[in-house]
Design a protein that fits this description.
N-terminal domain of TfIIb; Dimethylsulfoxide Reductase, domain 2; 17% strand
């Protein structure tokens, strides 16, 4: 400045003359004119509505980092989305979040987001305007007639309803909507539907004295992990007639849940159904009132599974199986669960049915397993993703069933095994449209890319597939304005498509926000909504404040007689394969999940819950297996199936069955941005495309592999570094009995 400017004069210049007055008193180059230096200045004494300078404001919304539907509060300061915390009003997560939910902020600000429409020309995707994109899309849809399909992940709420309405508007079958997720509980749901009459019953962990989990990683990735983590806390401190709850985990590879178990039992992958039948046999023999609902045919099957036979099939200790049986009889009520490692075989349905049979024999149904809440709005209920739809879509594409397919919320090019042939089948789809936030593998195969807003910029409603305690419709509202002006929400894109087909019905809505306001007003008039007496505006404001709509409880009912007579159980005979002696376990984990979060550095930096490895892929194997192959910790190995091979490092750990080679999911992307591309390997690519004999689900755990040592490699990058200090263990452990003796107890 040429001279001092008094504070009063400075405020006058700011308020009256703007920046120009200030610039006039500054020693600036003569090339800068007053007009060039002019800008709008907004006084903090007159902020925008809801803005308190320097103070964050919290808005309720719904997390979309996985399919559980947790409620969140997003902290916004001066128009910027900065932080996520759990919504205490949500019965799903009750104010808690997981690390994937926390990483939603980084997903929103990810530098590799798609910011404008792109269209394929000359084999390359080039940026185009929305006008060009819409024009090309309209022409392709007009020529396609009703040969139009949608391929999404798990979806619910009004977005799902609009997809159904659009397919109806073009006379396409509702079966043209495929939902796909690698991490799912589709077989568990199918068994529940057949045996109980309820596909997603409530699981009351807090009422159980003992939980026996067959590979259900309910603290990590199974169904609704944040919800179950809360129930787990109650279970650990529950009275339940027997004090602190006990957890027994049976699985081929230790998961986060297994690491928290009181007793962890390693078992061959695929043997869980046999263990369940052996336990049913043991419980019936040692409990006078058990087994009343068992048919004579099943009784004959069950009696053939002795503890000795089961231990041999599972490759584990007979004493372990007996200890589990004794605990189930002693600690009642209990709860028995089945997860991905049970479902992922050619007889996965039968294995899960055997596990549900154990629940029935133990009398858990009606106590720790109770009917779910009925869905009063079936058009909004969740359409859970599965792997059967991936196979069915691939077959439909091979037969040239579709001329136009929309992809959103799923990345099948990454998740499909090479043996399925999806990538080649996509060549038979005339026009592929990706509605996407990131340049993943499926998006980069598309002919047209429509840039999708992040979940923090979009409106929506969601109905969680698993609900307990209360029945809700979760509401998603923008936490800030769009970072990029050319991105759109999924609801707006669907509404534009419907306006073109049904202008009389949808043409009056300016945008999806207006449609959603009207739709929620319609919900308010339903007798299924609590507090229907509130006015439209009051109801809308309360909905935005709480982030959810309470739906009146309307319980489903189980089948009048819980019977197993209509459920046949056929477990496979034990097989050996000298060419491929090991079972591949492609394991989902909290963090990268199925690979959808590999582009987030926060989650790449988050150590694996068991191995503590970061930014890498690895194959976990038992020390005895490693010794047999001639592999040391960190050595480079090749894991090969009959459909291909991958190279990665060996991680030697006791928390895996000697028959199993476990490889975490998430890495191995060929696209998906700078933080994911070219990092690690994708075990899904070498899977054999076998299916469950009854549900048609992809048998994820049915692939046999061989392992070849390739030589030494660098050490792992992992949290905590070494397990030893100058060759000595950090902590020496002794049995409790020895401690009691040495302490004179």
């Amino acid at each position: 400045m040429n001279g001092p400017v008094k504070r009063r004069d400075f405020l006058k210049m700011m308020g009256v003359s703007g920046v120009g007055g200030t610039l006039a008193g500054c020693d600036l180059p003569s090339t800068v004119t007053l007009e060039e230096g002019k800008e709008d200045v907004v006084s903090y004494f007159m902020p925008e509505e809801y803005v308190i300078p320097g103070v964050g404001v919290w808005f309720a919304s719904t997390c979309l980092q996985c399919d559980a539907g947790c409620g969140i509060h997003g902290r916004v300061r001066e128009g910027r989305f900065l932080k996520v915390e759990g919504n205490p009003d949500s019965p799903i997560n009750k104010g808690k979040t997981c690390q994937m939910g926390q990483a939603g902020v980084q997903s929103h600000y990810n530098p590799d987001r798609i910011t404008q429409p792109m269209m394929r020309e000359g084999g390359k995707l080039i940026a185009v305007s929305w006008e060009q994109a819409n024009s090309a899309l309209k022409q392709k849809l007009s020529n396609a007639g009703k040969k139009i399909g949608w391929f999404t992940g798990t979806i619910s709420g009004h977005q799902s309803a609009l997809i159904t309405n659009y397919l109806d508007a073009v006379d396409a079958s509702t079966e043209s909507h495929f939902t796909h997720d690698v991490v799912n509980a589709a077989v568990w749901q199918a068994v529940n539907k057949d045996m109980l009459g309820d596909s997603m019953p409530e699981l009351h962990m807090d009422k159980a004295a003992l939980i026996l989990s067959f590979g259900a990683d309910f603290l990590g990735t199974w169904v609704s992990p944040v919800h179950f983590a809360g129930k787990w806390g109650e279970f650990r401190s529950a009275e339940a007639g027997a004090g602190r709850g006990t957890l027994i985990q049976v699985e081929s590879k230790m998961t986060l849940t297994g690491g928290n178990a009181d007793l962890w039992v390693p078992a061959k992958s695929g043997s869980e159904g046999a263990i369940a039948l052996g336990l049913v046999n043991y419980v019936i023999k040692n409990s006078p009132n058990a087994g009343n609902n068992i048919s004579s045919e099943q009784q004959n099957l069950i009696s053939s599974y002795s503890l000795e036979k089961v231990a041999q099939i599972a490759g584990t200790s007979q004493d372990y199986i007996k200890r589990i049986g004794d605990a189930l009889i002693k600690r009642s009520p209990s709860l028995v669960l089945a997860g991905a490692s049970v479902e992922g075989h050619e007889h996965g349905y039968d294995a899960v049915a055997a596990i549900m049979l154990l629940n029935i024999v133990l009398g858990n149904v009606g106590k720790t397993i109770q009917p779910s809440n009925a869905t009063p709005f079936p058009q909004l209920q969740a359409k859970p993703g599965n792997t059967r739809d991936l196979i069915e879509f691939t077959n439909a594409a091979k037969s040239k069933k579709f001329d136009v397919v929309f992809f959103s919320g799923s990345n099948p090019v990454f998740t499909a095994p090479d043996s399925l042939g999806l990538k080649d089948a996509l060549g038979n789809v005339g026009f592929k449209v990706a509605v996407s936030t990131f340049p993943d593998e499926t998006t980069m195969q598309a002919d047209l890319v429509l840039p999708l807003s992040s979940y923090a910029e979009d409106w929506g409603t969601h109905v969680p597939a698993y609900q307990e305690d209360r029945n809700i419709v979760a509401v998603q509202q923008p936490l800030m304005n769009n970072l990029y002006s050319d991105t759109k929400g999924l609801g707006d894109i669907l509404l534009d498509l419907l306006k073109d087909k049904k202008p009389d019905e949808y043409g009056s809505y300016k945008d999806y926000y207006a449609y959603l306001q009207d739709a929620i007003k319609t919900l308010r008039g339903s007798s299924s909504i609590k507090e229907p007496e509130a006015g439209d505006l009051q109801f809308w404001n309360k909905t935005l404040k709480t982030g959810l709509i309470d739906v009146a409880d309307q319980k489903n009912t189980f089948a009048s007689t819980i019977s197993t007579e209509n459920v046949t159980i056929k477990l496979p005979e034990e097989k050996t394969d000298s060419a491929y002696p090991y079972q591949l376990a492609p394991v989902a984990r909290l963090g990268l999940y199925d690979g959808r979060h590999a582009n987030l550095p926060w989650l790449q930096e988050s150590p694996d819950q068991i191995s503590k490895v970061v930014w890498d892929s690895w194959a976990e194997m038992h020390p005895n297996t490693a010794k047999k192959i001639g592999v040391s910790h960190g050595d480079l190995i090749e894991v090969a199936s009959e459909n291909g091979s991958i190279k990665l490092k060996a991680y030697i750990i006791k928390g895996v069955h000697p028959d199993t080679i476990a490889i975490p999911l998430g890495q191995g992307h060929e696209e998906f941005g700078r933080y994911a591309k070219g990092l690690g390997v994708n075990p899904l690519k070498i899977l054999t495309a076998r299916t469950d004999s009854k549900t048609g689900e992809l048998a994820m755990y049915a692939t046999r592999v061989k392992v070849t040592a390739l030589g030494k490699e660098d050490v792992f990058v992992r949290l905590g570094g070494n397990d030893t200090q100058v060759g000595r263990k950090f902590v020496r452990t002794i049995p409790v009995e020895v401690l009691k003796r040495t302490e004179g107890a």
